[in-house]
Amino acid sequence: MKAWGLLAVIVASTVTADLLQSHEMKRHGEIQDFRPSGLRSVLRKLAGKRNLILAVACMAVSFFAFMALVQVADLSFAVPASAASLVIETVLARLVLKEHVDSRRWIGAALVAGGVWLLAL
Amino acid sequence: MNPRLRWKTRAFAAIVILSNALGNLSLTWGLRYGAGELTASPLTFLRAIFSPWVSLGICLLIAWLISRMFLLSWADLSYVLPVTAFGYVLTALLSRMFLGEQVTAARWAGTLLIMAGVILVGLGNPHTGDAT
Q: Which domain holds residue A28?
């Protein structure tokens, strides 16, 4: 039961972090300069972005919950089970963001949900 | 996609998959053998974080985070998700080989189903209104 509680924390914080991170990195644009000075400049610029700071905070919550999870459950359970975030993301996209979710994506989300159910057996 | 960008994308996808799977393995190894039990006390987490295997795991997961952020700056999430879904199978294999976990038939089936689901979700058109 503790494992499923920790998994719920991981999924909720991962969904939030993924949305914030993807949004902010797209706004930044493609990274082209991979020299140390260029990377430093990119990291400095990204470090001040509020969405990325929030995303990192969510990832930290997710990470600490993951640390606790692998002490009470198998790694081969913990990693795939955390993909349940895709199911939540799909439902949220439809209900909250009012996005059009095509049938392929619904089927994909259903497969993930089925996979998580199989992991629970 | 030009050849340089294609090469860069494949290289970063490989780094994302490997750093995540090896980072999780190292982290779990450290947490099970030597880092002590985690409780509600933050001190137990701090002590665990500075143990050697957990530290290595964290370094690899930081590499995963940065390489994934870089990849997302030019590649769509709808590309990144299915390509990196292979990591689920790699994690199951590493768990079996190095952590001695018993990966049952149901767990393999669940892992493969989740990988297929992630690939399908990633292949879906991310834009509203023009789904194919």
A: 2-120
* Residues of chain A with C-beta less than 8 angstroms from the C-beta of B95: 74-76
Q: Which residue of B has its CA nearest to A42?
A: B70
What whole-number percentage of chain B has pLDDT above 70?
92
User: B96–A117: do the CB atoms touch at under 8 Å?
Assistant: no
Closest CA to B65 of A17, A67, A51: A17
- pTM, whole model, 2 decimals? 0.77
B128 lies in a domain?
no
ipTM rounded to 2 decimals: 0.81
Number of domains in chain A: 1
**Residue B77 belongs to a domain:** yes
- Residue B23 CB: number of other CB atoms within 10 A? 20
Tell whether A88 is within 8 A of chain B (Cβ).
no
pLDDT digits (tens, 9 = 90+) for A54-110: 998 998 899 899 999 998 999 999 988 888 888 887 887 777 666 777 888 889 889
How far from B11 is each of B4, B17, B18, CA to CA, in Å?
Answer: 11, 10, 11
Q: Please, what is the angle between helix B52-74 and helix A2-28, to 10°?
A: 40
